[in-house]
Design a protein that fits this description.
The chain is of the alpha/beta class. The protein is built from twelve helices and six strands. Helix 4 crosses helix 10, helix 6 packs across helix 12 and helix 7 packs parallel to helix 12.
Length: 302
């Protein structure tokens, strides 16, 4: 019987949607190659990245705030010293596409976890032969977490008193607050039969959802993708990740919970909208139609 090659999957999501935990699960699939956000960092760092200059400024401000001075080139130089990963500032969208499409003898899975804003206006860079999965989390859970993450990890003073409504166009957030971009991509890929996974369903019934997911993409389900070890940030050494991203993630708390996770965990309660900040409420209201539309198409299991 002819070798049909590995299953090829891209997981698209918003920030704070458990996508890094999902990536960690896929890292435990035997004979796999897993990628961490190459399109997002092509946009932020790559040779043809739309947010390259904005990210450069933010990175330099972060270094100055920590009292280490330097400029963007110094940051790149420090990142290049990492013994794993690739240099994100030297690659293009075409390079990412070619790497994902490359032959992978002996591999059973090529998996890429990415953020939807990384592919905005770059649909021509989507690789062929991939199954697309959308990880969908309720906006009322995403945006409070996103706002806290931004406050806790941005350079001092940059995000104090932050208003989410003012973030589109800054490099922190796309114009449609992530959910419009997620739905736009979903519609673009509709003919390829994308899979939508609701994070509440995943956390309530991880075994059922992951068995159904594995069947859909054509890989064998094993218990290892539900229960894994707390590797801390050392897990990044098993990923294809931009060195600059790895260095940043090691020095912030952005992925702290995912790095320390040993499973998908229990779903949190839906926050009380009446207790949310005004900007969060307004952004959530803008995103709900896209969320509700995609939620109707979610993968459902008994």
């Amino acid at each position: 019987m002819a070798d049909v090659g590995p299953a090829r999957v891209i997981l698209w999501g918003t920030p704070r949607c458990l996508s890094t935990a999902f990536l960690k699960a896929m890292t435990h699939v035997d004979d796999s190659i897993v990628w961490h956000e190459p399109y997002l960092y092509a946009r932020r760092l790559g040779t043809d990245g739309a947010d390259r200059e904005k990210f450069r400024i933010m990175a330099e401000q972060g270094m100055k705030a920590k009292g280490v001075g330097g400029n963007f080139d110094a940051i790149i130089g420090m990142a290049k010293m990492l013994p794993f990963g690739y240099v994100g500032s030297e690659v293009s969208y075409q390079w990412v596409k070619e790497q994902l499409q490359a032959d992978a003898p002996g591999k059973k899975l090529i998996f890429n976890k990415d953020m939807v804003e990384g592919i905005v206006d770059k649909y021509d860079a989507i690789p062929e032969g991939f199954r697309h999965v959308f990880l969908l989390r309720h906006p009322l859970k995403v945006f409070p977490s996103f706002k806290n993450m931004a406050k806790n990890n941005a350079p001092p003073g940059m995000m104090e008193g932050v208003d989410l409504r003012k973030l589109p166009g800054t490099g922190f957030m796309p114009a449609g607050y992530f959910y419009k971009e997620l739905d736009d991509l979903y519609e673009y890929l509709k003919d390829s039969k994308p899979i939508v996974i609701c994070t509440d369903d995943l956390q309530k019934n991880p075994e059922g959802v992951m068995k159904a997911y594995c069947k859909e993409i054509g890989i064998q389900y094993t218990e290892k993708i539900l229960n894994w070890t707390d590797d801390g940030d050392a897990i990044m050494q098993k990923w294809m990740i931009a060195k600059e991203s790895a260095m940043m993630l090691s020095s912030t708390t952005i992925h702290k919970n995912a790095f320390g996770s040993t499973g998908f965990g229990e779903p949190s309660e839906l926050p009380d909208k009446a207790e949310m900040d005004e900007d969060i409420v307004e952004v959530v209201d803008k995103c709900m139609p896209y969320y509700e539309k995609m939620h109707k198409d979610r993968l459902q299991v008994e």
